[in-house]
Amino acid sequence: MLVPDIQKAAAELELSRPEYIIPTHIHLDHAGGLGKLAEAFPHTRMVLNRQGAKHMVEPSRLIKSTRMAFGDDFEATYGPILPVPESRLKLVRDGDKLKLGGRELLIIHTPGHAAHHIAIFDTKTRGLFCGESLGLIYSPGYPPLPAVAPPSFDLELYLDDMKKLKALKPKLLFYSHGTAAREPEKLIDTAVTNTKLVGDLILRDLKAGRSDEAIIKSVGDYLTEHFDAPLDEYELMSNVSGYIHYFRKKGLI
Fold it and tell me: Which of 52, 31, 53, 34 is nearest to 44 (CA)?
């Protein structure tokens, strides 16, 4: 969603001075526009954990990793990543609670997808804004599949995050990229199963000496055959690359 779209939606909801803007993590497609939003909403605080905050105050490393993922000309498509003044940040830790009117938002640190990832649980409605910590439903009607990105994806932590979020007993899941879904327990169990399944496929192929390109194609073919999964080229590459980086970092191959 573009910053002007967010401004228009806020105006329609009569939110001229929202208290907080809370990205679940600072990857380009989630917080790349946070600096511009800070300018657009000068009275609003941006909620981040310490791992994410340092890279938004001084985004040089974030810009570097974004260039690696999206190319040197990413700004032509997505716009620049602007720094957020430190004075505009509200830092949160695992277990912190934000009080907003008659509700309370519980912050859960979910570092499996990335070290700076958080989930937000509305204790009043039991709605869980899970970001990408429970995988993604890439298109309505499809089962949740892994949402993985190098370099900080950690499979062990990712599965721990899913267990921790399931224990909250949410009634509704708000995924990143526009999907809301009921039957949270079933969906989380499916995400766990599919996350392990894709990891096992990739690790098997790595141990067999297959190239990264061959593994990406193999996983894409498997997901298409078994799930009719609508992952695009970048999503598939990111997922497989995240697993490969993790397995190599752990010394499993």
Answer: 34
